[in-house]
Amino acid sequence: MTLDAIRTFLNASTPITSSLLVIGSAGLLALLTALVFRILISLQGTGTQKMEQIAAQIRSGAMAFLRREYMVIVLFALIAGGCLYIFLDTGLSYARIGQWGMPYTAGSFGLGAVCSLLAGFIGMRTATAANVRTAQAARTSLALALRVSFLSGSTMGMAVVGLGLLGLTGGLYYFLDIEHLSLAEALTPLTAFTFGASSVALFARVGGGIYTKAADVGADLVGKVEKNIPEDDPRNPAVIADNVGDNVGDVAGMGADLFESYVGSILATMLVGLHVTWTGDPGDAEIAALLPLFLAALGIVASIIGTFVVRIGKGSSNVQGALKNGMFLSSVLVLIGAYFFCQRLLPAEVSMGVFYAITSGLIAGVIIGMLTEYYTSQNYGPVRQLADSTKTGAATVMISGLALGYLSTFLPVVVVCIALAVSFSGGGMYGVAISAVGMLSTLGYSLAIDAFGPVADNAGGIAEMSKLPAQVRTRTDVLDSAGNTTAAIGKGFAIGVAGFMCLALLAAYKEEAGITGIDVSKPFTLVGILLGGMLPFLFSSMTMRAVGRAAMAMIEEVRRQFRDIEGLMEGKVLGDSARCVAISTSAAIREMILPGFLVIVAPLIVGYLLGREALGGLLVGSLVTSILMGMSMANSGGAWDNAKKFIEAGNLGGKGSDSHKAAVVGDTVGDPFKDTSGPSLNILVKLLHIIAVLTVSLFAMDGALATMF
Amino acid sequence: MTLDAIRTFLNASTPITSSLLVIGSAGLLALLTALVFRILISLQGTGTQKMEQIAAQIRSGAMAFLRREYMVIVLFALIAGGCLYIFLDTGLSYARIGQWGMPYTAGSFGLGAVCSLLAGFIGMRTATAANVRTAQAARTSLALALRVSFLSGSTMGMAVVGLGLLGLTGGLYYFLDIEHLSLAEALTPLTAFTFGASSVALFARVGGGIYTKAADVGADLVGKVEKNIPEDDPRNPAVIADNVGDNVGDVAGMGADLFESYVGSILATMLVGLHVTWTGDPGDAEIAALLPLFLAALGIVASIIGTFVVRIGKGSSNVQGALKNGMFLSSVLVLIGAYFFCQRLLPAEVSMGVFYAITSGLIAGVIIGMLTEYYTSQNYGPVRQLADSTKTGAATVMISGLALGYLSTFLPVVVVCIALAVSFSGGGMYGVAISAVGMLSTLGYSLAIDAFGPVADNAGGIAEMSKLPAQVRTRTDVLDSAGNTTAAIGKGFAIGVAGFMCLALLAAYKEEAGITGIDVSKPFTLVGILLGGMLPFLFSSMTMRAVGRAAMAMIEEVRRQFRDIEGLMEGKVLGDSARCVAISTSAAIREMILPGFLVIVAPLIVGYLLGREALGGLLVGSLVTSILMGMSMANSGGAWDNAKKFIEAGNLGGKGSDSHKAAVVGDTVGDPFKDTSGPSLNILVKLLHIIAVLTVSLFAMDGALATMF
Description:
Two copies of one chain form a homodimer.
Chain A (H helix, E strand, L loop, with lengths): L2 H8 L4 H28 L6 H41 L14 H35 L3 H37 L4 H44 L12 H35 L9 H25 L11 H27 L2 H29 L4 H8 L5 H14 L2 H31 L2 H23 L4 H44 L9 H42 L12 H15 L1 H18 L1 H37 L9 H38 L8 H5 L1
């Protein structure tokens, strides 16, 4: 059984490296698919000269942001990589992977960062090429526009899973086959691969979140409120920055976030798998460690197949339905394949249990997405009631929206708890970990439907600015509306995924730390859990204030341009869009430093002062409040956004009514909630877990303070 | 040592019962002091006929609410007491206290409920007698008005600590001396004393919180906004209900909340003390169990002395300073006395450690209060910046206020963590528990400064409605402003106290449950902590919606009266105040049932399904998020309130400006935050802990689900 199963399965004499080659091929397949999709996009027309010009501005703005951001990331990576080399690869704890001075950890970290950066870069290049082509396609038909924008999302999705899986298996192959480490030795430095991905995600999500909302609020407040010009009006110099922001936040930010969850869950499950003893056969651990990779490879194939069913018939506008079909198909394919894998590869004692664990993760992810949709879509009661509360003014909109967000945590938490219980009873802590991989296996597809939204949104903006016929804008609006819903679902999914990845990492942390448990009835652990619970509050406060300051800088710049540039208001000359982009970029980069520093330093301080078990407490505390706050913020924000849209669609007095004004207040508060602070909490909690797993070997069991008292 | 120490100390042959007599005398002393204060208040004049008439309306409204509320509580107590009798005193687990069928547990429960109800009743009667006398005193001087209102607060404070301590020692004396139970046997049913107090607190805090905000919002929205008449205008029929609400929320609600914390902390420390083994002498446990009672008795004496220094000189208006002097004096007295007790009663090995634990609790309480003041008072940066954010409209006020609340959790949590570490290193889990008693020892005084605020507030209302000279209103405004600050500090203190009481109860829970730890790396415990963390979100959502619905009912009634009652707007006839009071009362009673049910059922379900350790996880999870959410809500709310007042004082454009309108939105959102949902979280978390301690013997170690899987 076990490794022999792989031997038979692959008909190979070196089961592990052969497996890695098979799995790596799936990663390569994903990248090839991404390349094909990218070429298909290029074949589309780019429309009028005006459209091309605007698209070029957005693209150059996006690239300007990426350039600045990547410079900071590279700088950070050099410092962090250096620290990793000094503390983990040499000297202080060189014994941990057997060979002194080899930059295994630092190298893995760099590889992880590079893969994530590359995925983000591909996603951004594709999205900023596809936006104008989607606008152009919308001149033909909605079906074609959907095709182009969805191809763009799929390119991103495939790039993320391809680079993630290829990077992981490549690193592993190198350590195992070339450097001759054992699987356990190889996995320890590979943890840093996830840390690399996390570092990029921190900057992409937090910085991107601040960027996008500073631009959005700046553009809206001066343009729509003060100058009374419509959204996406070319006279507003912040509009380009706003359109860049959609890409920066929802493409690069979301992509980096989910890239991190993807590789983090796989790696954590491998680490936990190493300690599995199912039948007493030492091969158990190796097969348990390889299973998440097989599952991810399977998910890539399922996602590619799912992509092909996303199409709508002529005259139909059921975009949402088409997207759901693909999701359904790829999920079912993964389940069938997982059943087959479990039966063929795992010992009979655990095969069904592990399969149930995978299933529970996959289903929990889908249900959390559906619940998010229920609480944030205009089609259901909660948003309708929220819209109703605009009748009595802004204060009741705030109270109702916050209450809605709080309430919306109830069912998802129950779902998480059930999935947790099912997966644990199915396969112990390994079951919990692999359920996260199950949830993420179809990421290639689910990221595609997330990442198509901003492309559609941009296409609408380009159509507006290029003064294309109203019919075009109507078509892009259909896409945009579907994109808004999928974006909300994506946020809920990303939170659920982050939670499950952290559960997997928590299991890995326990193994790495060599602790028997995390007993919160011990005072130091309780201190850890209190501090951990507080961090999301502190972090949210920082990011919300950051958006406020960055938006202020943007508002002043836009006001200045309208004041100083003659003929701007009359549409005779163009504003200085590049300067707006630069301001948002600088503010975002500057504002993400302090919260970033907090996340990295907090676990180190707690680990050093209070010891390993207290650090475990910190992780659990941060996990609980991050999930709850993140979910409530994302859902409050999404609901406020859609309540406003519901009124703008002509309900309750429509645009310009008092209800609408109250709804706009809700939406403005909701923007940093759902696009900055909420999503940033995912990064916070994941990064805390990864840093803890990575650095726990540096801390004494009891911490420095314990020796003092 | 140990019991011999008491023998020498009290020169008595029966150390435990003699101790109880001494301690009980302190409780009696508190009640006598309350009586004297109450008589002193009665000796003050009640002013004009108009003033008396309005005061009578407020008083009868308050009594109407209490009558309705108490009826519900009695009904609830009969059911809960019956359940306690059936499940804990007889049959199912009669073995726990040795004698079958004696209603020890049910009786203790009833005693706790009666003591709390009585304290609330005394507080309300006094406050509604003192409000008009304070207004009358304000016609003479500010100093006299402070004296009357502070006497009223002190009456409440003394009634709470007196009834708390007397009830506890009386019950204990009965069990020990008359029923001949051992100390351990006696303490088990006495836990239900706290449950009785908690049940009253649940209704008083949640119901009172809903009542007061429904009346407040209803009065303001129709009166100030729609009809454009000033605050406290006698034409507005909801004004009486609003004034009743101040008493219901801030006197009865706050009093019941702190009564619960007071007896809960003492009892939890006694339970933990029973398991102490300092020197190997079995008397260790008994002395450890008695120490919190001695400390409470000491605190009563210190509080009474502190009361006497609260006075201001002629011409001075430094009310805040006078109140702080008393706080400082009584704290120092407690510390000196505690040092003496520890030295004389405890074995030398632990005496200083326990003293440090008590000190850390007392100091932490004071610091948390000061931090709350910093974040919510107009005199410091945070509220000034918040007021500044009104310039850019309601949305930025919301964002800044929420961010302020989130940020304000950071330092208090650090303070709690430090106190936790110090008290644990000083005296183990016993040290943690007794630090809560240290924090609460001066409750007689700190509750006095909380409970004087609403009296001053009412006095202002009466002065306004009776059309007294402007100078009177100016004086009551000085008192009111000081009262607002102490109310905010009191809220911070109440949260800190609830947190420490829960830490004490958590230690007691572990002993009662017979579990070795609460290991959150076990999946069921993790499920418990996730569910526990989610409950405060769900609970807040319920209470916020409840306020919304209740306020709506009030708004409609006030609108109806202005529409249907001819001559009301012209001031020719009076509105139907009683009906407004009745509507607020009914709504509050109705709306508190569902959240109340949730709190009681949740721990029972988790305990039954997932077992004792998971129930411990539920407690920790709820503790973490309750403290954090409660603190952030209370501070956001307090800051919004004071930012509005800062603008009304003539800053940033003053009343009627756009800034003011934006600030009013913040204040309206802040009202349910700081007066309903935030404070209710104290009750939620304490009640969960008490129910868990009380019922844990009913649950299997592993829970029903564990046997299924």
